[in-house]
Amino acid sequence: MHILHLAKYYWPHSGGMARVVQGLAQGEAAKGHRVEVVAIEPFVSPLRPPQARKAVLKAVSFGSVASTDLAPGYLFKAWRGADLIHLHHPHTLADVASLLRLNRAPLVVTHHGDNRRTNAIWLTRAVLRRASAIVVPSRAHIALSKELTGFESKVEVIPFGIDERRWAAVPPRTGPGPARALFIGRLERYKGVDVLLRALEQAPDVSLDIVGGGPDGPRLKTLAQALALTDRVRWFGEWPDEDLPRRMADADFLVLPSVTVDEMFGLVLLEAMAAGRPIITTAVPSGVREVNVPGETGLEVPIRDPHSLAEAINTLAADPGLRARMGEVGRSMVRERYSLEMMVERYLEVYRKVSVVSGDHGPVV
In order of start, what are the domains of the chain with their CATH numbers? Predict the structure, then answer.
């Protein structure tokens, strides 16, 4: 089967959506399908390895207006013939491209989150109406999304998955010094890194690594200085995705202190669990609460509560045995529920269903 993914970005661009698209594309190709990905390429970007771009059709972006990339080549590349179109939403250009296509191949939409551009709701609803199937990563996603209202009968839940083998090779941390916490993600307000820094002030025996960049970075570094944390916080900025296991190897546990439901799933949680690291999350009513099982894979604290977060950090820092037990449970859970193999197989089953209903294409094998 010829599968065409309409994505916003692709590896090595950072971000959960890009990693999900990469996993699906590579997993489907490994099963013998012809897979192509249409994605945005910044005008100035590092050279990509040949194997990364062989089946990735990059449309160059010359900037953006209202958070929409100016990449006219995207629409042209997205008009390629295919047996099935897999659109990753939100992405306005992909929405437009799917509606303008003359080849009415079955359309599957992975709804990663609502489009923040509220004036584009009519476009989103047109795409969802056209879709043969809509997939979300968690049950909470259905309840939280305003865009999915009225389309619930089309929605299927398929949790995101990762290649756990990549993370299983990460060794336990054996380095000297205090326990080390880790945050990986964009430095944006909804991530709650300011709450994490205030909690760290109350956990004097713990160090913290922060991996990622974003608009909130300068404010957060100023806050760390004001809290006298500069000797306990390491800032790594944007880090190549292929090198993230090295950062995980330096950590005892991972903290995701998100403060809003903009944190819809948290793929990094699966990566930490697969590496045998316990996780600390907040009680955001999203897919995060479906991934972390408090007391088994990690700890959960109230939203925007530095004191409770500090208590959780101190608890894990002081108990290596607890960290090891939670880490093993997390490893097993990823293998059983969140593997890349399981995600790919379940998506292929969706492809089979919509192809049979459309009647225009052969079976997916």
Answer: 2-161+339-358 (3.40.50.2000), 164-337 (3.40.50.2000)
